[in-house]
């Protein structure tokens, strides 16, 4: 039998490796930026077109490469960072496996220009699908310039899985921000389709955070710092009152490398225990410096997960450091309360005993005594003795003529009408017509209403979601939304990526009732809001909408509108625990069954269930 196992060609092996390393354009951005940092660059420029699908161009002023190094850099597992397996546990650089450029070159058109400082001419190499098509000597500045064009051009299936330009650009911005936050001493510039999105000069960590997230971020930050034999901790956490529902402002850096660690995240939440509202997330920018020999970076293809030797000690130190900083800057409550001097006992009364109060009783007071007796002695009379009691003599005169009056009202056309006396008794239930119109709120979560066949139990939150969803969708479609003008415009601060997202859906928001007075690089100013939104809930609703949009923005306009309306309906709907008046309950029930799809919420969840009389009868068998 012939052998069936064969070695894969190099270009196929590179494409398979690229599937692990290069998942989307943001992966290429991350690898190229890290290579520029390893080259000790002080200025890095990132140029992107069509969210990286057409072009990703990174220019740095690092030490560059020689002609031989430039050629070898595109070979698989060719690296200058490690020489033996033991070096994997003593890493001081970003890249070390030598697979990034080889994987990128296998699925794109790559052009590299590089020159060392001690040479007059540089090298230019062009590669298409792992095949070198040109190599020549060129005049170029010191450093490296690498352009990646037509990503996934030879793997159409992978290219079809890419999301819209807005989503892919947001992923690129996320990777750009992570690298920029880790290296405040390096200047970064980001261009997209010719527009400058970020221009970050060399600065310190605090200023870099402010430059990325906006000017008002500075007042939200609380510094943390701790130096031990195991770890050196520094960075910033956000004040509890500025916490958000999203996790967009949560960053861990270990030896200037961004990582994701649910275990360390739990330590931060433990430090904020009791300071945050339910479902709110703290902001933090924490930099950890540990001995490279105590961590393992090579456990994940994207190197965003790290294994620590002593996680328990790190957890305790991180939690204690954050908790100490919150208390030190008077963010967390402490037992050292300010004493009110008005409550102090005066010195003159310090050793005096409290006087026993005397109770005076009028022994001659008798509430059943005749009123005239008290009127004779005004000194001993109670304070209500001047009240004049109406005489009850002659009470029979009050009913004189009542019978004749009753007979007059019963005469009609000369004939008397006889009324049948009806005994009035209390009843547990009202008549059928009244009972059909009544609703009842159960546990401030469900609305119970009767129907002909039994009862219906409605989830008030989901029902309101459905009502709002169809109302908002109609308003966007026909542009007939009612907007309430604000006496004073309100301003909110957002990050650059969030502002770009708001601009993307600005037209749809205006059709709902939002009125934008001004939009800058980091703020929005609203002069009008929808009539069914209160100004106090406005920021929460916008932040929730942005959080929902972080995952996906579909390409088609209708799908974008659908995502937007679902997000707003979820944020604006009444919550479980809100007490509704009977009129509000009936209005919600009527509006629900006037919807086109009253059975399910916008998120395809059941809104109500019915119990027939037969079902109830079976419970009593």
TrEMBL record:
Keywords: DNA damage, DNA repair, Endonuclease, Hydrolase, Nuclease. Pfam families: DNA_mis_repair, HATPase_c_3, MutL_C. GO terms for molecular function: endonuclease activity. InterPro entries: DNA_mismatch_repair_CS, DNA_mismatch_repair_MutL, DNA_mismatch_S5_2-like, HATPase_C_sf, MutL/Mlh/PMS, MutL/Mlh/Pms-like, MutL_C, MutL_C_dimsub. PROSITE patterns: DNA_MISMATCH_REPAIR_1. Residues 209-327 form the DNA mismatch repair protein S5 domain. Residues 438-580 form the MutL C-terminal dimerisation domain. Belongs to the DNA mismatch repair MutL/HexB family. PANTHER family: DNA MISMATCH REPAIR PROTEIN MLH, PMS, MUTL, DNA MISMATCH REPAIR PROTEIN MLH1. This protein is involved in the repair of mismatches in DNA. It is required for dam-dependent methyl-directed DNA mismatch repair. May act as a 'molecular matchmaker', a protein that promotes the formation of a stable complex between two or more DNA-binding proteins in an ATP-dependent manner without itself being part of a final effector complex. This is DNA mismatch repair protein MutL. It comes from Kordia aestuariivivens.
